[in-house]
Amino acid sequence: MTNSPTTPAPTPRRAAPSDAGEIARLRSQYILSEPLDERWLARGRDQLALRLQPGGDAYAYVVDAPGAGLASCALGFVHTLLPAPRYPQGLAVRIHAVATEPAHRRRGYAHAALSALLAHLQECGVTLYELYASEGSAPLYERLGFRPDPALMRMTKLPDLPDPGEPSAP
After folding, report:
1. The domain spanning residue 76 has which CATH number?
2. What is the pLDDT of residues 81-95, one digit of tens each?
3. Dist. CA 122–CA 141, nearest whole Å
4. Rounded CA separation 118/93 (Å)
5. Residue 109 lies in domain
6. In a 10 Å sphere around its CB, with 0-12 CB exposed, 13-18 middle and 19+ buried, how is residue 109 labelled?
7. pLDDT of 45-78, one tens digit each?
């Protein structure tokens, strides 16, 4: 994770709607258990581009790869909930994707992108941060202050779809 004297420190920037395709690609290739086909990637790109616009609920920070594309991204979706003493503003974020191209790993890119995202969200009044972590990614999140919560258990329920290859209506 440390930068060598010859490796410049990563410089994250706030993602623009035009970054949506690359963020969707990184998520598909390096986070999902099965990569998405082109149709689903396009759908995710289009939806994310809308949500990254000013006033949208998506916030992301990225590190550009030398040449073209993205080396790393950190994406979160902000939502409201009922306030409580630990999150008095009633604003929470679910960190949805943190991914780095394999050629750019171990250089601090994910740490830089996620740190910038968390700082920005804190300035926006977010006080509850949630994510799902794999064993491999947990150390990164722990360095940034995340802790396991033994009171929570991830459970999922998906609707029965007639054809899993067809996108359902939003």
Report:
1. 3.40.630.30
2. 999 998 899 999 999
3. 16
4. 9
5. 13-143
6. buried
7. 999 999 999 999 999 999 999 889 999 999 999 9
Q: Residue 52 burial (CB < 10 Å; 0-12/13-18/19+)?
A: buried
Sole residue written with tokens 């998506």: 58
Residues 6+ apart with CB under 8 A from 19: 52, 60, 62, 70, 73
Element (H, E) at 26: helix 20-30
Q: Which helix (H) or strand (E) holds 41?
A: helix 38-51
Residue 163 included in any domain: no
Closest to 130 in 3D by CA, of 77, 60, 90, 85: 77
- Tell me if 92 is assigned to some domain: yes
In our burial notation (b when 16+ CB lie closer than 10 A, e otherwise), range 14-29 reads: ebebebbbbbbbbbbe
Nearest to 101 by CA among 65, 129, 68: 65
CB burial of residue 135 (10 Å; 0-12, 13-18, 19+)? exposed
CB-based contact 28:96 (threshold 8 Å): no
In contact, 27 and 72? CB cutoff 8 Å: no
- 163 phi/psi in degrees, rounded to 5: -135, 105
pTM value is 0.85
